[in-house]
Structures are given as C-alpha cells and as structure tokens.
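User: Show me a protein chain along with its predicted structure.
Assistant: Here is one chain, sequence first, then structure tokens.
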Amino acid sequence: MKEVHSFKLRLLAMVSMTTLFSSCFSHVDPECHMTTPQIIEYYGHISESHNVTTEDGYILTVHRILQKTSSQKGVVFLQHGLLDSSATWVMNTYNNSLGFVLAQAGYDVWLGNVRGNYYSRHHVTLTTKDPEYWDYSFDEHAKYDLPAMLEYVLSKSWHHGSLSYVGHSQGTLMALIEFSRNKKLASKVNLFTALAPVGRVNNAVGAFKLVSDILPEIVAVTDKLGIYDFAPLTPAVSEFAILLCPVIPSICSEVFYVIAGPDQYLNSSRVPVYGSHAPAGTSIKNILHWNQIYLAKQPQMWDYGTAADNLAHYNTTTPPVYQYSGLEVPTVFFSGGNDYLGDPEDVVWLVGQLQSGVLKDSYTYDGYAHLSCLWALNAREWVFDKIIGHLNTVWG
C-alpha cells in the first residue's frame, strides 16, 4: 500500500529529529506519566486494583472506578482490545472517557486486563522470562481470562447476580467466543456491547496486513533472540510518544491511521496520551493466531501446524471453527465505516452469524475507524450516551 510505504519513510526521517524538537514544547498532559489507577484518582474517584488468578495460573490485574456518589445502578465490566490495557477507558478527556462517563452515571465500573499486557504480567509459578509464560493467544483470553475476571467481579460487586459487558476489538472476540459456548457464564451477562466488533478479519488491511506480510521474518528474528512478547509498553516507547507527538502530531496521527483506519473524529490533542499507554503488549503467539485466522479466512482455534498435532489437541486434523450462533446474550454493536480491522463486510457477516433477536441494536458511523468508539471527539454523544440508554433499560 502506497500510504503505508510513505508513512514508514516519513516516520524514519522524523525519528532522528525527535531530540532536536523536544525542547520546542513545554506542555505535557499529566496522564502521559500516570498508570490507570493514578488517572482514576487524578479525576477525583477512588481507585481499586484487584488481582485475579486464572485456572491456569496467570495473575491478572483488574481496576475499579468507585464513583463519587453512593448510588449504585449496576455493574459494568469493560474489556480492552488487542495490544491495549485498562487505560484505554480513562485516557481521553474526563467527560469523554467511557469509564468515567459510566461512573458519573452511577455504575460500578470494572476494567479488565488480559494476561501479558502491561498490568497483567504475573503467574503463580512462571515469570515473563519463561517461554511457557507466553504460550497463549486469544483462545486463552476467552477460555481462562474472561471467566476468571467476570466471576471475580460478580463476587465482589454489590450486584452479585449479573453484570453488563462492554468490549472493544479483541474484547469483543473474547466475548463472542466464550458467551457462545459457556452458557453458565453467559447467563450472568445481561447486556453485551461490542465496540468495533471483530468476529473474523477476512478483509483487514492497513498495519494488520502489513504485519501479516512480514510476520515470518519477524518470528525468525525473535525466535533466534528468544523473544516471545510482542510490542510491550516500555518507558522508551512512552517517552517517544510524549516527545514526538506534540511536536509533529501529523506523524502520530498517521500511526493511528495506518493501524485503525482514517478517522474523521480523532482527538489529535490527546494522541500523546494514547501513545504513552499503548501498545501495552501481548504474546507473539497471539499475533500469530490473529494472522492464522486472517490467512484461513475463518475464526478458528490455534492451528498447531500439522494434522497429527491438531488431532492430538482437538481430535480433528484441522482447528475447530468458532461458532457464534450460540450467543444468547442481548447484544448491541457500534462499528465504523473506515475500520481497518473490523471491516464493514466482516461486521455484516458477523451479524448474519447471530441468532435472530440477539442483536438488539446496531450503530454504524461512516467516519469512524477502529478506535473511534473509544476516543472520538463525538464519542460521548454518538456512542457513550447510547450505551447508557441501553444500560438504563437493562438495570431499570
């Protein structure tokens, strides 16, 4: 793609100039150097951090926003997407961050973090230096991480019977997989809101396709170096975004363009904050799994590479295909016409996989890309207020 090649050339040219330009600005948004709990407390809320241990031993960190009032309408769990973290729900402006908007509306808000991201890098026996720690993909996010977090939240919240779930990107894929097959868990979810829903990636373009094209070369290098994590959040990454984006905002905006698609409503003033918190890391195996379903043109479990290995794991020579027809949780979709990962054609396909009556409402905005439902300038009006409307109906 010409725009990807052009972007890479401009980025390389600008990297060497970052230090020279860094002295030209004085304002840095304070949230750039804050963790999710610190951002929550910065805006006057009480923050809680909870450790959740999965069935297979991963220790996940779940954050909670306690509202400023004593009223409680219900419980809402927010699950981030690929290469993201709980920060995604609170790092826009205060009145335009879904986590805070829901807390202001009286909801008990919990923010998940899947294994391997910046906030969930512990295990009962393994460390991140062990290759076995990184032996996971979205299969495990759905099978282990999601049930562990939701069951924990239900045990700790004031509304023990049920909760509402909001997922973005990979957070929607996790829910589509697990709510479709885990009926016990699904029965405790009264509403599933999918932001930039992804059930397959047959038509993905942009950075996703670019990485797919060069992934064999990347893996060849990382295997030799013994690297098993992908795009972790480090101080160097954060500082790069903090230094570069205020000085040359067009470059950082183009990063989001190539990753997510052309976004007519991106809040460019917050790009340094976004870039200082993401990417937040995952496993190389997870990236490989995303690439597998892209190449296979279907949402399937991890492919072990040979018929014999698949047979040993699945009792079938090919990976089982995920079926979404089992989803019974009332569902609402928010999608974008410019989404590079959740392509409109794939969203239409996904709608067709659901049982009649499951999808209660669906909103599509032509100028929205993959991250718009989180951070768009008009996300409060176009997305968040509508979510609250559906929540208020469920919770009464």
